[in-house]
Amino acid sequence: MPLRITPVATRRDIREFIRLPFAVYRRGPTIYDAWVPPLNMDVRRIFDPKRNSLYDHSDMQGFLARDGDRVVGRAVAIVDRNYCAYQNTQTGFWGYYESFDRPDAAQALLGTCEDWVKERGMRRIIGPVHGSTGNQMGNLIDAFDLMPVIDMPYAPPYYAALFENAGYGKEKDLYSYRQEIGHMLSEKILRVAAIAEERNRVEIRTVDMKRWDEELDNARQIYDDAWADNWGYVPWHKPDFAALAQDLKLAVNPEFTYVASIDGETAGFMIPIPDLNPGFHKAGGRLLPFGIFHLLAAKKNASMLRVAAMGVRKKFQNRGIDAIFIARLDRDASSFGFTLGDMSWILEDNVPLRNLLDKWGAEHYRTHRVYGKDLA
User: Fold this and answer.
1) How many structural domains does the chain have?
2) Which of 16, 24, 53, 193 has a CA between 20 and 30 Å from the CA of residue 267?
3) What backbone phi and psi angles, to 5 degrees, belong to 88?
4) Would 371 be classed as within a structural domain?
5) Phi, psi at 38, each rounded to 5°
6) Which helix (H) or strand (E) holds 132?
7) Is 167 helix (H, G, I), strand (E, B) or coil?
8) Which of 175, 200, 222 is the last residue of a domain?
9) How crowded is residue 264: how many other Cβ atoms within 10 Å of its Cβ?
10) Are residues 79 and 209 in the same domain?
């Protein structure tokens, strides 16, 4: 029976969509043990317009590749109207891709996604983008033996060849950096940060969890201001950001979640979160009955922090606020037993920040790649 591409339309289809990566990774070589299953309920939410606010501004359709009765691949085609309007582009996405090492399945799935977005007026397509450019995106192209940090995607080594053979080229690389905490910064850098704090009248405080909604709304406004000119940026849809904020609230430690201000005006923020992926790895996609205990244990015993979000208003950039944040994090997080910090992701062409990370002694240790293709 020839390979078939079918839409995700029923509950059974969604179950098969969820189960496929377990077959791909858990039957593969030992390096695939680094894969971290997302929660099944989060994957189901992809297809639920009532619980997924992306549908407020996006059209999405999932597809399955079937070889007889066996599902061998999956993908979702996406048109984000907010992205197209802000970027003044006719560009669609594909995301949530998983498959066995089957070039025929990759070409058929991606070709179907291409046709689907073309029917909706798109002239270009990029991926993997999991819903929107504010969510997970990029295909892992190195460091396959390392478990990804929280909210970063994993992929097997053969995906890059599948995408390239389907006619895709590099669109943008996203870099991950890591650095030891507690003794990662030289005395000179700490002095520079202290001088910048005093000279520029920078005041640093920790987040007020009693005013969490207000704090996060300020963070959203700062992020929108700081990132407005960056590749792939689109202003946050408030319900999308609210969903992200709810997830962050469960993970953040207010002792080292920072807000900066200058002359009484909020200037920047930094939100580091413990890497809970060892707990998600053990949970195996389920919170109940035991998954929640694995996550609680992971939060208690986490040794790595990921700087999940950081931004400084344009008018306050180049005043050392980012260096001050890092110096504070190095001091405060080490007192809680954290030994490693991850900064992901960083655009490959964000040269000023990359140079700064190099000066701090951070290591570029992982890369995710977004691919693009013109649609004739």
Assistant:
1) 2
2) 53
3) 50, 55
4) no
5) -70, 160
6) none
7) coil
8) 175
9) 8
10) no
Identity at 286, one-letter amino acid code? R
Instruction: Kindly state whether residue 366 falls inside one of the protein's structural domains.
Output: no
Tokens 């995906």 sit at which residue? 159
Copy the structure tokens of residue 85.
């309007």
Residue 113's Cα: distance from chain center in Å?
22
Mean pLDDT by 10 residues, the chain (376 residues): 92 97 88 93 95 96 96 98 96 98 97 98 98 94 96 96 98 95 70 83 92 87 89 90 80 90 92 93 90 90 91 90 87 88 92 85 94 95
Q: Which two tokens stand for residue 349?
A: 């062409």
- Nearest residue to 176 (alpha-carbon basis) of 150, 203, 196: 150
DSSP state of 137: B
User: Contact 45/239 with Cβ under 8 angstroms?
Assistant: no
Question: Which among 252, 264, 257 has a CA at the least distance from the CA of 325?
Answer: 257
Structure tokens at 371: 């691919």
Q: If we measure between CA atoms, which residue out of 87, 79, 25, 17 comes closest to residue 54?
A: 79
21's enclosing H/E stretch is helix 11-26
Distance of alpha carbon 223 from alpha carbon 209, whole angstroms:
19
